[in-house]
Amino acid sequence: MTDKAKYDSNPQGTDLDQPQRPGRVDLIGCGPGDPELLTLRALKRLAMADVVVADRLVPDAIVELADAKARRIDVGKTPFAPSISQDEINQILVREALKGNHVARLKGGDPGIFGRLAEEVSALRAAGVSVDIVPGVTAAHACAAEIGLPVTLRHKVRQFSVLTGATAGGTVDLDWQALSREGHAFAIYMGVAAADTLAKRMLESGAAPTLPVVVVENGCRLEQRSVQTTLAQLSEAITALAITGPAIIFVGLDWQQANLSRPTTVESFPATQSASIEVPARAAENADTVVTACPSPNPIKRTNVS
Ligand SMILES: C[S@@+](CC[C@H](N)C(=O)[O-])C[C@H]1O[C@@H](n2cnc3c(N)ncnc32)[C@H](O)[C@@H]1O
Q: Which atom belonging to ligand 1 lies closest to the Cα atom of 165?
């Protein structure tokens, strides 16, 4: 059955195993911030919602694509600051769905990648609420595309993983030996604060100090910045450029091994002259994007809970 047929035959959601309750929740991946990176399915589900529950990294330009009558609840968590708890978010989703609402739960990137997806799905299922997952473009893939950086390379980079620099206990505990192996590249999410520890552990485990590293901050947004450096200079580069995130740190990838040139929009740390591709400035591109994607943003009601 095609997706459209599946959806048309079950407009209450595709979670057919669940008992039928009046409301439902769509857990929607919204990509890294540019409304043009929303999928058609995400856009359709957003347009059908009575209530929109949005994360911090989902910009207004996306939330405003919901119906004008939709009620908005912001549940954004701020890193290293007091924020709404995951339990409270789960309760809001359950409460709104059990009132009979169609809830669009908007998450940055893809909901299944460092998105607390499991907790929300299990809370909703435990309450007998129909839940559906709409995939989104994850930050690593979107950021890599923005700077023309392939994340795998035939014969050279055969493994690409995603990992987090933030853990519940605060200690980054990863398999440093495996990460340092040749032919393995990875993208670190939430890694700015842990970058120093991460680089030190990898160097201790035998990684080359010259291992290429690329950092993309605010990828696919007006404020996008990116820098190429090395593992040994990662921490220094982050401090010198005052990178605070959200950012993706790519390790083991660069343009040279792909026989490409670094785009001029990507800085080098320390500075070099080698960039040679002209890439249009993100701000100019995005100005068009926002106008195209949101010709007349709908004013929607907001409820702040945090
Ligand atoms: C809680 S994780 C959520 C990841 C999300 N589910 C995804 O698939 O992209 C948040 C982290 O994603 C990364 N991130 C999200 N949006 C980003 C963006 N526009 N540019 C760079 N990194 C981003 C940052 O590492 C940020 O700290």
A: 25
Q: For 7-137, which CATH class?
A: alpha beta
CB of 108 within 6 A of ligand 1: the answer is yes
3-state secondary structure of 191: coil
Is residue 37 a contact partner of residue 224, using CB atoms and an 8 Å limit? no
**HSE toward the beta carbon, residue 190, CA cutoff 13 A:** 18
| Superfamily of segment(s) 140-272 | Tetrapyrrole methylase, C-terminal domain (3.30.950.10)
From the CB of 188, is ligand 1 less than 6 Å away?
no
Domain boundaries, the chain: 7-137, 140-272
Per-residue pLDDT of the chain (306 residues; tens, 9 = 90+): 444 454 444 444 555 455 556 799 999 999 999 999 999 999 999 999 999 999 999 999 999 999 999 999 999 877 667 789 999 999 999 999 999 999 999 999 999 999 999 999 999 999 999 999 999 999 999 999 999 999 999 999 999 999 999 876 666 778 888 888 889 999 999 999 999 999 999 999 889 999 999 999 999 999 999 999 999 999 999 999 999 989 999 999 999 999 999 999 999 999 875 554 444 444 444 433 322 222 222 333 334 443
Task: Pick from 36, 83, 248, 289 the residue to mutate for probing ligand 1's pocket: most ligand atoms within 8 Å of its CB.
Answer: 248
Spell out the alpha helix ranges (H) of the chain.
3-9, 40-48, 60-63, 86-98, 117-126, 139-146, 176-180, 195-204, 234-240, 282-293
